[in-house]
Amino acid sequence: PAPVGAVPGGLAAAAASPTGDAVALVTTGGRLLLLAGPCGGWAPLADVDAFGWDAEPVPSRVMPPPQTFDPASHSLSPGDAALSWKGDGTGVATVLRAAPNTPFALRSHAAPSGDLDAVGEGGPALTGCVAWAPDGRHMYAAVAGDGADAPKIALFEPNGMRHGHFDAPGAGAVAALAWSPGAGVLAVSRA
């Protein structure tokens, strides 16, 4: 296939929409790009700050302390970002950290505008794995275990509020989360 464009610096994360007619990209420079395609060719829908600091404050939510991100001194890598689409394609969840060894933060953005909808209650143990349930009711994100505690999968409502958790099955750190096509099973990949 022929290339459809170039992203200066490269990509830290990418995910196709559930219908395959759009793609979300996080650049190494900290931008969230939403592109429409492929039937009519690829066309930009949104280009916004992935960290959301250029956005208006989210109503009824307290923004966490700013994560200073300077693309001149640090580039996001694949371990710094993850994406997941809402089942109906109207939103994108991101889990990002501004630099290595800093906490991840969960955010949700509207699609196709890219507008920041919510900032999640992440905490220092949040990791770089996210999967939005196909029914859109919850975002699931991995949380590192503490000492003898097993890693957990935390549930977040679309407004970013944490709504419980369960122990991750198996052994080792959680490497990835993904929903089955029928939405009946959440796959948890362990490192």
Structure description:
This protein has 191 residues and is mainly β. The chain contains no helices and 14 strands. The protein has strands at residues 11-16, 22-27, 31-36, 43-49, 81-85, 91-96, 105-110, 116-119, 126-132, 139-143, 152-156, 162-167, 174-179, 186-190. The strands form four sheets. The chain has a four-stranded antiparallel beta sheet with strand order 1-2-3-4, with no helix packed on it. Strands 5-6-7-8 form a four-stranded antiparallel beta sheet, with no helix packed on it. The radius of gyration is 16 Å and the shape is globular. It starts with 10 loop residues before the first strand and ends with a strand. The model has no long low-confidence stretch (mean pLDDT 84).
Main sheet specs:
4 strands, antiparallel
Structural class: mainly beta
Strand composition percent: 35-45%
Give me the count of strands. Answer: 14
What integer is the average pLDDT? 84
**Distance N terminus to C terminus?**
32 Å
As laid out across the biggest beta sheet, the strand order is 1-2-3-4
Radius of gyration over C-alpha positions, nearest whole angstrom: 16 Å
**Number of helical segments with 4 or more residues:** 0
Low-confidence stretches: none
- Return the string of H and E elements: EEEEEEEEEEEEEE
- Shape call: globular
**Helix amount:** under 10%
